[in-house]
Amino acid sequence: MISVAEVGHFALILAVGVALYQFIVPLVGAQRGDVAAMRAGISAAILQLVLIAIAFAALTHAYVTSDFSVLNVVENSHSAKPLLYKISGVWGNHEGSMVLWVLILALYGAAVALFGQNLPLELRARVLAIQGSIGLAFLLFIVMTSNPFIRVDPPPIEGNGLNPILQDPALAFHPPFLYAGYVGLSIAFAFAVAALIEGRVDAAWARWVRPWTLVAWMFLTIGIAMGSWWAYYELGWGGWWFWDPVENASFMPWLVATALIHSAIVVEKRNALKIWTVLLSILAFSLSLMGTFLVRSGVLTSVHAFAVDPERGSFILMILCLFIGGSLSLFAWRAPQLKAGGLFAPVSREGSLVVNNLLLCVSCLAVFVGTLYPLALETLTGEKISVGAPYFDLTFGPIILPLLLLVPVGAFLAWKRGDIGLAMKRLAWALVLALIVGAIVFALNVRGPWLAPVGMAIAAWLVFGAIADLAAKVALFKVPLATSWHRLTGLPRSAIGTAVAHAGLGVLVAGVIAISLWRIEVIVALKPGESAAVGKYTVTFTGEAPLVGPNYTGKVGSFTLKEADRELATLRSEKRNFKPSGMPTTEVGLYQTWHGDVYVVMGDETTGGARAMRMYYNPFVNFIWFGATIMFAGGLLSLSDRRYRVGAPKRAATAQAVPAE
Amino acid sequence: MTRKQKRLSLILGGLAVIGLAAGLVLYALSDTITFFHTPSDLTETGVKVGQRIRLGGMVEQGSVRKGPGTVTSFGVTDTLKTVTVSYDGILPDLFREGQGVVTEGKLQQDGSFVADTVLAKHDENYMPRELANSLKEKGVKLGKGAEEGAMQ
């Protein structure tokens, strides 16, 4: 009988051939106007998905059944691991994560093939061909340098296990979401390259690109939020964002994707910013590729750097240069042929979206410099430096601040020519409410940092501004409530989605400001029975006990949490030692309320039978992830808009004059 | 405004923002980056007292002292020289004697080092890349794991 792993291996190699076919045939077909060749891309994309899905399923099967004849399973799994982590172990290593990468790429490709019936055949063929070329590059990378199906004979009895800090539910699903975001941007890239080849960008093009970019942006948002949530409670450092190069690698595409979903609106509504939008599409995916390179090549020291293998690094670098260099050259050659579109005054909706794009891209550039400067300096001069949070606070903060102030205003400016005075008049009550919030924070926080009232006022400004946007659209309190409600249900979903996402941003900003400025940190040595005060809470160390888990042993410390004299909870912080690597990890004791978390970490033994403890009160920290979830929901609402439903728009319908709004 | 003027104002505005941002980036880079040193190049390169740096090396065998309170002190060595580091806080899970460590903090008058951050993201086979390279340059013979640079 042929083993399942061999079937997977075979399917993966077949997929290389199919990717080559998907790349060449529809592309040539589109050039020659050969309908059959163009149609071939559709079936190739679907076949591609089937083959990679078989490979992925075979690898998952090897993990679930602990088939230690597969080297990858030996190196990254262990028979005593819980089932969830056997499955997440598939992508908890370099080879498997690359298979997941191409699987998601194939999923997007097949989605364009299946749901793109309304796309002109030529455009669909070219998009699928570009998708095929990306698939080809990464499949070759897998087969030549990172094959997950390499066998060992004789198979060992037991595997080495998965890095214990990756054995966590949030982290099990963080890579699939993040990859869905990274790879989703490949669609916008493929559309951009196809448009450059065709020499045509119009409103219909923007309507096709927007939902795909939005999907990618939503997945990126939630993927980054999950990673941050994991870092918060698993690493035990009490922080939620460390400006770690790997975090930045996912944040940069997010910033550019955010710019892209905004600039695509301008292309769609006003037929302007076309060249810029094409460039952004290329940049967004280039940053995704660069993120993959940074994370996968081992040039960075981090939990994500699974293995250092110079051959892999240079292969990904080659893919990077080929796609980024190729697409930018094509851009330089073909972009001048794209006709410039509608005119607009600096103060207008378009103008505000240009400022949005400018600030997002410049902030991305600041992150880019801070992330790559140490690598560049070390390569050029051999000098070793680290660029940490202070750099990013100093650069990213001041660049993004004006953008946050502008968000509510932009939504009130008219297309083509706006009136700031009128916008501010409509926003007056939101501004007043935001200032009141700032004043309250100032009064409660007299000796606190000046940023606190300012930051909270900005957060409130974003939330109230979003409400004001919807209120103005439904003429709240100007017409009977029933009429307003009727208007609200009649609003395009994308308008509601925009307001929801902007409000979510406000919630997120409130969380970020609160934890950055008001966190309470206590480091103290405690013997059993002793207590420490953390803000208004008292934490008492009641003692420790041995701990036995499915694949680890260790110690668990118990704590009682009191507010005044009321007992609120018993917290447990664990120190685990994982089999078989013996690697230690720490589990945080967490008490969550809507207004913040009490966070307790048990440290090592110190002198006299005491243990070092680290405790935090993290005010409003959950607003960060809650805000990100609201932003995701805003994206989902937009996506459900009839006009943006994937593949819905027809070019014929919009090919007439672009309607002026 | 004419079409040309509009475009010009847009471009000038954009350039102004980029210029400001570039200034900010340069200022931040000159002000906030920290340099990496090993114990022996600490004296060679003339790091000033109170300057914020990263100090990396191996935790010297038998050098870890606990107390008072939550303070831990330990020797960081590159086998040529050793610097005593004290740190008030909780050490990372992977901190162990005889293994690589990177600390961030300030050099004191008496030649000791007070760290506010201790990083040790490694397993028994791993040594921070910066460190492995520095030690190799100095001709220190490394163990198998460090040569391979295998990370977790």
UniProtKB/TrEMBL annotation, chain A:
Subcellular location: Cell inner membrane
One Pfam match: Cytochrom_C_asm
GO CC annotations, alphabetized: plasma membrane
InterPro entries reported for this sequence: CcmF_C, Cyt_c_assembly, Cyt_c_biogenesis, Cyt_c_biogenesis_CcmF
Key words of the record: Cell inner membrane, Cell membrane, Cytochrome c-type biogenesis, Lyase, Membrane, Transmembrane, Transmembrane helix
Parts of the chain that traverse the membrane: 12-30, 42-64, 98-116, 128-150, 177-197, 209-231, 251-268, 275-295, 315-333, 354-376, 396-415, 427-444, 450-476, 496-518, 623-640
GO BP: cytochrome complex assembly
Keyword Lyase found: yes
Primary localization: membrane
GO MF annotations, alphabetized: heme binding; heme transmembrane transporter activity; lyase activity
Stretches assigned to the Cytochrome c-type biogenesis protein CcmF C-terminal domain: 317-642
Ranges of residues in domain Cytochrome c assembly protein: 91-297
Membrane topology: Multi-pass membrane protein
Keyword Transmembrane: yes
Protein family (similarity comment): Belongs to the CcmF/CycK/Ccl1/NrfE/CcsA family.
Function: Required for the biogenesis of c-type cytochromes. Possible subunit of a heme lyase.
PANTHER family hit by this protein: CYTOCHROME C ASSEMBLY PROTEIN-RELATED (PTHR43653), CYTOCHROME C-TYPE BIOGENESIS PROTEIN CCMF (PTHR43653:SF1)
Protein name: Heme lyase NrfEFG subunit NrfE
Lineage of producing organism: Bacteria, Pseudomonadati, Pseudomonadota, Alphaproteobacteria, Hyphomicrobiales
UniProtKB/TrEMBL annotation, chain B:
Compartments where found: Cell inner membrane; Cell membrane
Signal peptide boundaries: none
Membrane topology: Single-pass type II membrane protein
InterPro entries per UniProt: CcmE, CcmE-like_sf, NA-bd_OB-fold
Main location: membrane
One GO cellular component, as annotated: plasma membrane
Gene Ontology MF: a single term: metal ion binding
Binding annotation for heme: 122, 126
UniProt topological domain (Extracellular) ranges: 29-152
Keywords noted in UniProt: Cell membrane, Cytochrome c-type biogenesis, Heme, Iron, Membrane, Metal-binding, Signal-anchor, Transmembrane, Transmembrane helix
UniProt record, GO biological process: cytochrome complex assembly; protein-heme linkage
Annotated function: Heme chaperone required for the biogenesis of c-type cytochromes. Transiently binds heme delivered by CcmC and transfers the heme to apo-cytochromes in a process facilitated by CcmF and CcmH.
Name of the protein described by the UniProt record: Cytochrome c-type biogenesis protein CcmE
Source organism of this protein record: Aestuariivirga litoralis
Top-level taxonomy: Bacteria, Pseudomonadati, Pseudomonadota, Alphaproteobacteria, Hyphomicrobiales
Protein's gene: ccmE
